[in-house]
């Protein structure tokens, strides 16, 4: 069995796989990583291999703890990839984006595929039907947009993301929701349309913590795939065994 760990900017995702089948997944806060990993190895003593993707903070104590239980490998620029990476600066490419592209390549081979991760940031990553990763786009996520309005102005309140009532906000809160939520959905639809103009017959995958918010409101047809990052990590682990 395999254990894959994605340490993101906000939370930590863990997935246990039996070959290519996800048998358990969990999302925890950063400070609960050690406790969660110990519990997983007690529950699944058959775990033999581990894979770690790190974007957020992970101290040496956590990495040492993971290595006590099984052979853990770190996703980095030295990791062998099942696709061609045409990114100009591969050393700066986030490992979460690599895992997402690997998952897209695994599930949708021989297709032009755009994978959108709606999380702390909103990332767009494109892999062609010939297995070439060309790059993508990075934009602020919903929470980041709400926080920016609050932190960079003197009087605008910090709001939680909510469905917008319409284009015209008739009070300050509705105006913020329109300017953030409505505008972000329009932006995502526009980005998808721009990619479709360049890459016909495009498959679009949506994942991430805010995927449910966007998925209900986009005009474009998408495939919601909440576990694609974990599945991409497991695919990379199996590919590198």
Give the SSE map:
Elements: E1 2-7, E2 12-18, E3 21-28, H1 33-43, E4 49-54, H2 60-69, E5 71-74, E6 84-85, H3 95-107, E7 113-118, E8 121-127, E9 132-140, H4 142-151, H5 172-198, E10 203-207, H6 211-215, E11 223-224, H7 228-239
Parallel strand pairs: 1-4, 4-5, 6-9, 7-10, 10-11
Antiparallel strand pairs: 1-2, 2-3, 7-8, 8-9
Helix pairs in contact: 1-2, 3-7, 4-5
Pfam families: Pan_kinase
InterPro entries: ATPase_NBD, Type_III_PanK
Family: Belongs to the type III pantothenate kinase family.
Portion of residues in helices? 25-40%
Structural class: alpha/beta
Please state the oligomeric state of the protein chains shown. single chain
Shape: globular
What would you say this structure looks like, in words?
The structure is a single chain. The protein has helices at 33-43, 60-69, 95-107, 142-151, 172-198, 211-215, 228-239, and strands spanning 2-7, 12-18, 21-28, 49-54, 71-74, 84-85, 113-118, 121-127, 132-140, 203-207, 223-224. The strands form two sheets. Strands 6-9-8-7-10-11 form a six-stranded mixed β-sheet. A five-stranded mixed β-sheet has the order 3-2-1-4-5, with helices on both faces. It has two domains: 2-74, ATPase, nucleotide binding domain (Nucleotidyltransferase, domain 5, 2-Layer Sandwich); 84-233, 2-Layer Sandwich (Nucleotidyltransferase, domain 5), CATH 3.30.420.40. The protein has 241 residues and is α/β, with parallel strands linked by helices. The protein contains seven helices and eleven strands. Helix 4 (142-151) packs across helix 5.
């Amino acid at each position: 069995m395999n254990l894959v760990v994605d340490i993101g900017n906000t939370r930590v995702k863990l997935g246990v796989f039996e070959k290519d089948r996800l048998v358990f997944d969990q999302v925890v806060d950063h400070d609960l990583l050690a406790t969660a990993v110990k519990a997983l190895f007690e529950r699944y003593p058959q775990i033999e291999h581990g894979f770690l993707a790190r974007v957020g903070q992970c101290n040496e104590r956590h990495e040492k703890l993971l290595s006590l239980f099984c052979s853990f490998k770190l996703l980095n620029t030295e990791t062998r990839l099942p696709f061609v990476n045409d990114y100009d600066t591969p050393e700066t490419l986030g490992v979460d984006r690599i895992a997402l592209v690997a998952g897209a390549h695994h599930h949708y081979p021989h297709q032009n595929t755009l994978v959108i991760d709606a999380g702390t940031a909103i990332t767009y990553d494109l892999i062609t039907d010939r297995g070439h990763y060309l790059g993508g786009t990075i934009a602020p996520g919903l929470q980041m947009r709400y926080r920016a309005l609050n932190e960079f102005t003197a009087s605008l309140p910090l709001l939680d993301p909510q469905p917008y009532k319409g284009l015209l906000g008739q009070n300050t809160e509705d105006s913020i929701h329109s300017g953030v939520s409505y505008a972000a959905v329009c932006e995502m639809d526009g980005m998808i349309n721009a990619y479709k103009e360049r890459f016909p017959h495009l498959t679009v995958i949506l994942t991430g913590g805010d995927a449910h918010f966007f998925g209900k409101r986009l005009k474009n047809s998408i495939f919601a795939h909440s576990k694609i990052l974990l599945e991409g990590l497991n695919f990379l682990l199996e590919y590198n065994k």
